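User: I'll paste a sequence; please echo it back and then give the predicted structure.

Assistant: Echoing your sequence first, then the prediction.
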Amino acid sequence: MSEITTLIDEQDIGGYKVRPWGIVQLAKLSPVFERVTGKLKSEGITFKDLTDKEGMKLDSLIFILLPEVPSIFSITLNLTEEEVGKIPPQLTIAMLMTMLMQNMETLKNSFGLISVMIKQMTA
């Protein structure tokens, strides 16, 4: 992603600049994603469950994501967790949704690529 694209995709939410993740942020977020996907697997929740309106398990997803939100915010916004704790609660949902929407393609592509690589390595 070029710097111009990043600037275009930047969102200002309550004075906080929310930008798409770069490679350094993705590297820092990798353990967070690993924990989330591990918890999803242990709960038996698939990505289809999260996108299928009939079988959506939103309540389970919230409780899986919630402990990871401070780390996601800290890495995405380049803030300490103490600074993240000062973000007004009314901004957090909009910020989290913006982070997910800005990075949805990256997340989908990353998980797809990882799945293919794992299948190739175990074949």
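The first helix runs from residue 3 to 9. Helices lie at 3-9, 23-42, 47-51, 58-65, 69-77, 81-84, 89-122.
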